[in-house]
Amino acid sequence: MTPPRHTRASILDLAPVKFGGTIAEAFRNTLDLARHAEEWGYSRFWLAEHHNMAGIASAATSLVIGYVAAGTSKIRVGSGGIMLPNHAPLVIAEQFGTLETLYPGRIDLGVGRAPGSDPLTARALRRGLNADEHDFPQQVAELLAYLAPARPGQSLKAVPGEGTNVPVWLLGSSTYSAQLAAMLGLPFAFASHFAPEMLLPAIRMYRDAFQGSVYLDKPYVMAGVPIVAAATDAEAERLATTPKLRFLSLIRGEPIFMRPPVKSMEGLWSDAEKAMVQSKLRVAIVGGPETVCRRLAEFLKATEVDEVIFTSDVYEHAARLRSFEIAATAMKELGGSPAELEYAGPITV
After folding, report:
1. Mind listing the pLDDT tens digit for each residue in 156-169?
2. What is the rounded average pLDDT of the residues 314-332?
3. Domain span holding position 284
4. Res 80: pLDDT
5. Is the pTM of this model over 0.90?
6. Distance between terminal CA atoms of the chain?
7. Has residue 212 been placed in a domain?
8. What is the DSSP letter of 151?
9. CA distances (Å), 222 to each of 58, 137, 140, 170, in order?
10. Helix 175-184 and helix 199-209: axis angle, to 10°?
């Protein structure tokens, strides 16, 4: 089976912290993964903003992006995403304008409207900010204006930031951001790695409503895909208990450290919890190389996305690297390997 088009592949990383591990170790593993991803031909390496979540170390997202960009040479590095209601758009424009100036042609800015945290933390983050997620369209417009060349008479500018034209993506797990991305003519990334229910409706809405812009002349869709790949299907299923345990902890409101895999999930969750976790992982691809290739081809055929962004919550770092390597090999076998594609530069008309 082959996908209907050449499809890029990228990686989303949250600098995950292992149970009993350290944040410093998580950062080292993130950089090591990014370096391997660059060797394997992945197009992008994105990090996400989450706060007050023990087990995720990427809260200061722009700082970690700079760390990864400094330690690599060509892979695009960016946010998947920055939760814009938590910040003044001017500050984000300055941060990403700085990153783009330091690492020209390599920085992406994906933005979302969720808090990336619990309500208490959201209030702490937004103290002094008048905007919330309902003001998201205005915040996006403001951000785009700061990153564009200054207009005659413009008194407020992002320095640095002005004229850097950092590619801005809209992220979402519903049709809301799909509609906004279509209206603004921006690329759209759907969070199907944890909220797959609305994936196909959101893609259809985005493509049907898309309006060409100075940023993009035709729709461009990315979709998140959890991947757990190993030498055999049985070993992959065993390793996949780690992301299942992580989602289970999230559901229960517990710290979401990556825990070692277990032989079986039986007795560790209720029927209701099992159904919730399985729903979250509906588009997950778990298996050995042949299974991964087949399942990935099915996903690409069903969605016709332009790019997949893989996540892989595998406990041991070496096994996690192998999971992403198998995914890259599968893309190559399907004719859409990132290694066979032109380097993913800034998205322009």
Report:
1. 999 999 999 999 99
2. 97
3. 8-340
4. 95
5. yes
6. 31
7. yes
8. P
9. 21, 20, 19, 10
10. 20
In a domain, 163, yes or no: yes
Count of structural domains within the chain: 1
Only one residue has tokens 């998947």, namely 80
344: tokens are 């993913």
d(CA 186, CA 24): 35
CATH number of the CATH domain containing 314: 3.20.20.30
Residue with tokens 């893609």: 203
Residue 129 has pLDDT above 70, yes or no: no
pLDDT tens-digit series, residues 215-224: 999 999 999 9
Does any domain span residue 1? no
pLDDT > 90? residue 289: yes
- Closest C-alpha among 278, 209, 203 to residue 243: 278
Please report whether residue 108 resides in a domain: yes
pLDDT for the residue numbered 114: 77
As a whole number of angstroms, the distance between CA 74 and CA 104 comes to: 10
Non-local CB neighbours of 190 within 8 Å, separated by 6+ positions = 171, 172, 173, 178, 198, 199, 202, 203, 221, 222, 223, 224
